[in-house]
Amino acid sequence: MSHALPSHRSNGNCQSTQSQIADLTDSLRDSKVHLLLAASGSVATIKLPLIVKALSVHPNLSIRVLLTPSARRFLAGQAAEQPTVSSLHDFPSVDAVYFDEDEWKEPWKRGNSILHIELRRWADMLVIAPLSANTMAKIVGGMADGIITSVVRAWDARGELDSDVAMNTAMWRHPITAKQIKTLSDEWGVGKDGQGNGWFEVLSVQQKTLACGDIGDGAMMEWTEIVKVIEDRLNLTES
């Protein structure tokens, strides 16, 4: 199966924060399904363009991408499977890509909207794939030091948030990881059957040869399975 990715097209975040928020607010009434698709600093970020491409078959889906600074380093055009971040704009479903610096581009003044709050209001679902060990630790600790962690910290617990952990096997097997997963899955979780009272779902990791050369668990779920989860949760059907 071919997974050709779009060519580079320059499309930087030149708008002011308030202009970005105005566009976001206008799209609340577009009758589309709204997905926030986030990636943090893991080599599995290179699968993000494939996820977006597969989801772009749904004309009723609007995607807004959130990237940490570390995630951006995996999408710098250094290989065919690692196109530039700006090329994400070429997919028809992608309406915006946000970075940490988009939150406070200019000094805030009373009456201005706040980007991470408006993103939370806009989204029907947030998916973090991959969720790195570092970002997972921040989320469990309640930190809000970037666009992704700020959206999660402000998330309405009645909405759905799915995450797909990706890290080295040694990091996955570290005792602190088990404690953090317990918080996300048991204390905040939606339950094994999806019928729990929680709001956070941790998708299963897999065992494979990792980018570092180690063989073990901790790898992100296959990107095709992530697509299926999103389509199922959002009731998307291919047109």
TrEMBL record:
Keyword check for Cell membrane: no
GO molecular function terms attached to this record: FMN binding; phosphopantothenoylcysteine decarboxylase activity
A Pfam family of this chain: Flavoprotein
SUPFAM superfamilies per UniProt: Homo-oligomeric flavin-containing Cys decarboxylases, HFCD
Keywords per UniProt:
Coenzyme A biosynthesis
| Similarity comment text for this entry | Belongs to the HFCD (homooligomeric flavin containing Cys decarboxylase) superfamily.
User: What's the name of the protein?
Assistant: Halotolerance protein
Organism, as annotated? Truncatella angustata
